[in-house]
């Protein structure tokens, strides 16, 4: 907006805005990728905990 008010051409402002949007999309994509990996690890750990609990219950009831 500062450029627009400063008298810059509309095309220059559009190019800058599009560039900022692309950069934000890349940052968002990286952040979502990290969150997705962390989520998958959390699901895997939860699954291991559940399987361990099921194995312990099965072992205790079999004895």
TrEMBL record:
The chain crosses the membrane at residues 38-58. It comes from the Bacteria. Keywords: Membrane, Transmembrane, Transmembrane helix. It comes from Streptomyces luteosporeus. This is Transposase.
